[in-house]
Amino acid sequence: MEQLDQQQLTVTKDWWKESAADVPRLITETPGPRSKEMHTRAARYMKGLSSQVKLFPVCFEEGYGVTLTDVDGNRYLDFSSGIYVTSLGHCHPKISEAIAYWAKKLMNAHDFTTPVKEKLLEKMADVLPGNLNAIQLYSDGASAVEAAIRAARAITGKHEFISGYRDFHGKSMAAVSCAQMIRGDVFSYGPTRAPGFYMVPRPDPYRPLWTKADGTIDTDKYIAFYDQFITESTVGNVAAFVLEPAQGWAGSIFPPDDFFPKLKAFCEKKKILLFDDEVLAGMGRTGEYLCMNHWDVQPDIVTLGKSFGNGFPVTAMVLKEEYGEALESISASSSYGGNPMACAAALASIEVIEEEGLLENVRTVGAAIMKRLERMKEAHPIIGDVKGKGFLLGIELVKDKTTKEPFAEAGTLVYQKAFQRGLAWIPAGHILRMSPPLIMDEAYAMKGIDMIEDAITDVEKQFGYL
Ligand SMILES: Cc1ncc(COP(=O)(O)O)c(C=O)c1O
After folding, report:
1. Is the whole-model pTM more than 0.85?
2. Residues 65/81, Cβ–Cβ less than 8 Å
3. Per-residue pLDDT at 126 exceeds 70
């Protein structure tokens, strides 16, 4: 134990600032010549690349704090945290140190207890709300989701699942069956989803399906529809609603504040579990450990990933205490889940959130960004809506503010143009998605927004709006 404590490095809150002083630093055109050459060589073998890479084939060599540096020496401001992953900054010294310590001491001991696992489990039980403390660890989000589906079946003895339009939960069979992939290709080979998996509309305040007389979104009608849907379309054996608390891939879409409380009450009445997939939105991204905390709703099952290990592949499935026994029957463990390096990364990540006051940072800087986005919405003809909480943010581009017709071509161009200005971020359909590292302060956040606003202005000129 003494040795374990020695790796508990504490760093100052501003550990990343010096390295970011000159960002964006562009010394070649981007992507630069070395990036292009290396990417071309790698792409001969590496197939199935994401649109993120295809649209901007840069080759990164280094990441520190809020910046990424490419092989040509260009330095970018990070507005994506990898892909919602390196949320506490690239190579946070405390987290890198913790991983390195266990990389030299004990890399894998299957699901035996290790000192660092024991500490992590206690820490998780401490920061998660209510009695969410029956835990199993995995190494990717889809595996945690897959296990949670098995757990929900074991807990309820039921086998049907309902998820929301445009939700995303990963790419394994059960996870894909709960997801509406935006691209049609995953489903093109059929069968479209595993039997017993259904999707229903979920409330999007900018594009409501059902509204009240005053034009605002009517969440009661969504719940009433779910009731009818269960009667008409299922065999009445629904084990769980599987939902993202806020939709990440769909474009940082948050439901109205009354939606989850109403859904939870409905689930309790129907004896259906609420499975809250926090892989993307959890661990501080919205200013709370769980995004669901914003609505004071206690889910029955939670999955964590991405930011959970700040880049080290570690994920978790967490159940309410009373459901822990159910895991005995689903063969819950895995080869890599909960290895000491993974536990060290996750434990250090939670400690960093606490020590650096990052939930508070996300709330205050996130609110300042949102104010700026509201002003941009007024000023720009192609911004139809701005949305988000904390550091999970979106800008919805439309061809016309009245018809709200999505403007995907503009989204792609804005992505490329802001990247050329030195912003590493996530490609859009018609919704620009922003997920800066949680350590980012307001000055750097505004630098990033400046690059996005300049790119939007360019695109508006190109399409004749200005
Ligand atoms: C909400 C959500 N759940 C699950 C996953 C799957 O995680 P992974 O890519 O680690 O399998 C993702 C990935 O983007 C996600 O956004």
Report:
1. yes
2. no
3. yes
